[in-house]
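Weekly modeling sync, notes
Attendees: AB, CL, MP (scribe)

Item 1: holo prediction request
CL wants a bound-state model with NAP before deciding which constructs to order. AB pointed out that an apo prediction alone won't tell us much about the pocket. Agreed to run with the ligand included and paste results into these notes for async review.

Input as submitted:
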Amino acid sequence: MGGSFNPIHYGHLVAAETARDAFALDRVIFVPAGEPPHKARTVAPAEHRYLMTFLATASNRRFDTSRVEIERPGPSYTSDTLAHFHALDPDAHWYFITGADAVMEIAGWHAAEDIFRYAEVIAVSRPGYALRLRSLAPALGDNISRVHHLEVPALAISSSDVRARLSNGLSVRYLVPEGVEDYIRKCGLYESERQA
Ligand code: NAP
């Protein structure tokens, strides 16, 4: 499961668990993006995002958190990450799970063909997104059959809303796991909109 996780919230966790059930996955590996190639805006430092993701996933024995993107120098291309996991277990059936808004851009990603060679894609969204994903068909050709859509009502929670609440001094209780909120407050993350 790829994402910036800036910060991780319950929507991500419910999405991962829903995907695990729906696709009978053995486990879900959360992969915080190191240096998002598509973002000019700043995100919290990768090590913070990794540690928050680790804290949020630690209590689920079917969830893991990977350092592969935060330790790989240069832009975090999904194709490189999937090549890495495919090489670790070539016989496994790999899925790349991420937000549907991100998947809408996938045809333009670096080495997009490799993404579909190594994995099928699960685009998670709040309800009502199916039509937009179908519009990807001309850009993806046959690979459109390797894109699956999963509706997750809990994705009404978003990292940008969590960051806005934090920078405005509002509560994020019940939006992020308690340990993540404690970590954010301890490190003073997202206190100013400059990091949003
Ligand atoms: P983003 O543009 O910050 O997020 C787009 C939307 O998707 C947001 O609404 C976001 O909500 C949601 N989202 C992102 N990850 C999610 C997840 N795991 N579960 C549920 N919703 C999710 O996208 P991003 O997080 O930076 O990137 C998403 C993934 O695509 C990452 O793994 C990134 O490395 C990959 N990517 C790769 C390339 C490339 O290889 N060239 C280019 C772009 C993206 P929240 O803000 O609430 O998370």
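Recorded for review: The mean pLDDT is 93.
Action items: CL to compare against the apo run; MP to circulate these notes.
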